[in-house]
Amino acid sequence: MKISNWGNYPVIDAEMVTPSSYDQVKQIALRSPSLIARGLGRCYGDSSLNEKIISTTRLNHIVSFDEKNGILCCEAGVSLEEILDVFVPRGWFLPVTPGTKFVTIGGAVASDVHGKNHHQAGSFCNYVHSLRLMLSDGKIIFCSKEENRDIFEATCGGMGLTGIILEATFQLIKIETAYIRQKIEKAKNLEQIFQLFEASNNSTYTVAWIDCLQKGNHLGRSVMIRGEHALAKEIPAVKNPLILPEKMKFNIPFNFPNISLSAFSVKIFNEIWNLKYGFVPSIIDYNTFFYPLDSILHWNRLYGKNGLAQYQCLFSKESSYEAIKELLEIISKSGEGSPLGVLKLFGKQNGILSFPQEGYTLALDFPVRNSVFQLFQKLDEVVMKYNGRIYLTKDSRMSTEVFKHGYRNDLPSFQIVKRRIDKENKFQSLQSRRLEI
Ligand SMILES: Cc1cc2nc3c(=O)[nH]c(=O)nc-3n(C[C@H](O)[C@H](O)[C@H](O)COP(=O)(O)OP(=O)(O)OC[C@H]3O[C@@H](n4cnc5c(N)ncnc54)[C@H](O)[C@@H]3O)c2cc1C
């Protein structure tokens, strides 16, 4: 079958099997010389692509829940959406969530995903107590910070290359409502948005949208969005503040010529920017705050049949301003359309190969075409110059050189564990081969 991930690039011919028991997983693992696990395919590029793919979507049971302490154990194919549907009405929320809820727990662990609260909370695996992992010989092991610690740390952010995650036990956080108190503030340029981030360390959730079309004094013009979980007393009129009313979802039925999403996102940005009287804090439901694009199913099709590529990079705090300024200048000059970028502040690193490290991360979506890949090479030069790194789960084209430079302090430790537990290099992806992981 033809298969691709969220970016619809690359598309490959692969055999995908969907086991429904650990025994079936074992049989497949034992008879396949090479394979990779796949969740909901929300990585953008080739991290979960291989000629043989093992889909975890039928391993989707909740194993146990400790209601007193909020500790959930579930199979790897359970999605964040399923967890939210079941546990938000009971007053529990995910400790960390990416910008889509159509992600499995296996995928969240393997990419060690981050959210808008990384500066305070760290990444998803900070909250993972233990994992059940199937190794290349079919053996199932437990790993945690206490048991098989090096395997645990290599699996958190290890992009599926240590084995197949079967189950995860992790912490949920207590909430009083399903709503977020949101505050928006404008920044005239890059300098101001960095100041706003530094002044927002106490806010639980922070993110900025950057208007990448601006130049000169307005380079980096942005809006900062902050959020806190709303308390029940803040919304007295809502009868059951943990239950959300049903919302309509829109479906994009086919690939569009790639113009529509850009135009749509720029329109929203400009509407926010042009509000005359500043911003009154507002209370919005968690879906609108965390997953604005999830209400448009298959929005990736708006980028046309060639697909989309995301460029997400990260720099240390000291070099972020200069590096991101250079990137924005190159992008704005290039005329290639990523009209909006997303900027986030990260705290400390987790895991071995995990992407987040203390500093700023910028993410930009582009339609796939030759000129965009040429632009990416120019952006890579800036990333190399400032010792930055690129997020594996968003990547489909990075060179080995850029990867090895960005992960130079982490890759050797990861490879020691990988070579010990997967001697024959069974778990591999197109990406791991391209990057010589
Ligand atoms: C709209 C959108 C917004 C996003 N926002 C963010 C964000 O804010 N922060 C962020 O960190 N990420 C973000 N992502 C990326 C996404 O969270 C990750 O790519 C995530 O890993 C996808 O999970 P998945 O279940 O779809 O896994 P897949 O995409 O299928 O696989 C991703 C990786 O996980 C591995 N994997 C999956 N399941 C298993 C398993 N059971 N055992 C071992 N390995 C496994 C795969 O081999 C692969 O390496 C976003 C993606 C989209 C499309």
Helical content class: 25-40%
Strand content: 15-25%
Q: Return the average pLDDT rounded to an integer.
A: 93
User: What's the N-to-C terminus distance?
Assistant: 26 Å
What count of helical segments does DSSP give?
A: 13
Number of strands: 22
CATH topology of one domain: Alpha-Beta Plaits
Secondary structural class? alpha+beta
User: Given this structure, which CATH class of one domain is correct?
Assistant: Alpha Beta
Principal-axis shape: globular
Point out poorly predicted stretches: none
CATH architecture annotation of one domain? 2-Layer Sandwich
Mind telling me the C-alpha Rg? 21 Å
Biggest pleated sheet:
8 strands, antiparallel
List the ions, cofactors and other small molecules found in this model.
flavin-adenine dinucleotide
Question: Brief overview, please?
Answer:
Helix content is 28%, strand content 24%.
List its salient traits.
437 residues; alpha+beta; Alpha-Beta Plaits; five-stranded antiparallel sheet; 28% helix; binds flavin-adenine dinucleotide
General description of the model:
With 437 residues, the protein is of the alpha+beta class. The chain has a domain at 179-400: Alpha-Beta Plaits. The protein contains 13 helices and 22 strands. The chain has helices at 22-31, 80-87, 105-110, 118-121, 149-155, 190-198, 260-274, 286-290, 317-334, 370-385, 400-406, 411-421, 430-434; strands spanning 2-3, 12-13, 15-17, 36-38, 52-55, 62-66, 71-75, 92-93, 128-134, 140-144, 164-171, 173-174, 179-187, 205-211, 222-229, 250-251, 282-285, 296-297, 308-315, 340-346, 359-367, 389-390. The strands form six sheets. It has an eight-stranded antiparallel sheet with strand order 17-13-15-14-20-21-19-22. A five-stranded antiparallel sheet has the order 6-7-11-9-10. Helix 9 runs antiparallel to helix 10 (370-385). The radius of gyration is 21 Å and the shape is globular. The two termini are 26 Å apart. Bound molecules: flavin-adenine dinucleotide. Residues 5-6, 36-43, 47-48, 56, 76, 98-100, 103-104, 106-107, 110-111, 113-115, 159-160, 164-165, 293, 393 line the site of flavin-adenine dinucleotide (FAD). Flavin-adenine dinucleotide is lined by residues 5-6, 36-43, 47-48, 56, 76, 98-100, 103-104, 106-107, 110-111, 113-115, 159-160, 164-165, 293, 393.
